[in-house]
């Protein structure tokens, strides 16, 4: 099995895609007017409009209803990304180093999903990520 993507459902797909293009610095691939993907080297962030939910089952997903998951992006220079984004996003918490050794900050996307950018900061964390 291969982890392929995380999919978000958006009430405003154009705004949501533009937000993640701004955060990642990557262009989205629009596969349909109601569906886009941002492909990173290790996984894909898929974004579907609320209209796509009916293709599975009516009301099986709801935009803006997530409070249990966080999307995380590993970055090369957390300080530079924090400086680039701090005035452009709704911060949940500012830069801090977590007990497991990652330096991180967190914010919310336009639908309210938590998004974290992080980089390994301690020697132990750096070692853990080199082995992956």
Give me the secondary-structure topology:
Layout: E1 5-10, H1 13-24, E2 29-32, E3 35-39, E4 44-49, H2 53-56, E5 70-74, H3 78-85, E6 90-97, E7 102-108, E8 114-120, H4 123-130
Parallel strand pairs: 1-4, 5-8
Antiparallel strand pairs: 2-3, 3-4, 6-7, 7-8
Any descriptors?
single chain, 132 residues, alpha/beta, 2,3-Dihydroxybiphenyl 1,2-Dioxygenase, domain 1, 2 domains, four-stranded mixed beta sheet, 24% helix
Strand content: 35-45%
Reading off the top of the CATH hierarchy, the class of the largest domain is best stated as Alpha Beta
Number of domain units: 2
* C-alpha geometry: globular
- Parts with pLDDT < 50 across at least 5 consecutive residues: none
- The strands making up the biggest β-sheet line up spatially as 1-4-3-2
Task: Give the class from helix and strand content and strand pairing.
Answer: alpha/beta
Please describe the biggest sheet, giving its number of strands, its sense, and whether it closes into a barrel.
4 strands, mixed
Number of distinct helices: 4
Specify the helix fraction band.
10-25%
Describe this structure in words.
This protein is an alpha/beta fold and 132 residues long. The protein has 2 domains: 65 residues, 2,3-Dihydroxybiphenyl 1,2-Dioxygenase, domain 1, CATH 3.10.180; 67 residues, 2,3-Dihydroxybiphenyl 1,2-Dioxygenase, domain 1 (Roll). The chain has 4 helices and 8 strands; from the N terminus they run βαβββαβαβββα. Strands 1-4-3-2 form a 4-stranded mixed beta sheet, with helices on one face. A 4-stranded mixed beta sheet has the order 5-8-7-6. A hairpin with a 4-residue loop joins strand 6 and strand 7. The longest helix is centred in the first third of the chain and has 12 residues.
């Amino acid at each position: 099995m291969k982890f392929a993507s995380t999919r978000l459902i958006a009430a405003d797909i154009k705004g949501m895609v533009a937000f993640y293009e701004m955060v990642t610095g990557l262009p989205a691939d629009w596969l349909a007017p109601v569906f886009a993907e941002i492909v990173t080297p290790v996984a894909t962030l898929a974004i579907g409009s609320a209209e796509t939910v009916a293709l599975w089952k009516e009301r099986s997903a709801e935009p803006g209803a997530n409070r249990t998951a966080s999307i995380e992006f590993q970055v090369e220079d957390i300080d530079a990304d924090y400086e680039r984004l701090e005035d452009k996003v709704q911060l949940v918490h500012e830069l801090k180093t977590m007990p497991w050794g990652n330096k991180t900050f967190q914010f919310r996307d336009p639908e309210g999903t938590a998004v974290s950018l992080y980089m390994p900061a301690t020697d132990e964390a750096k070692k853990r990520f080199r082995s992956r």
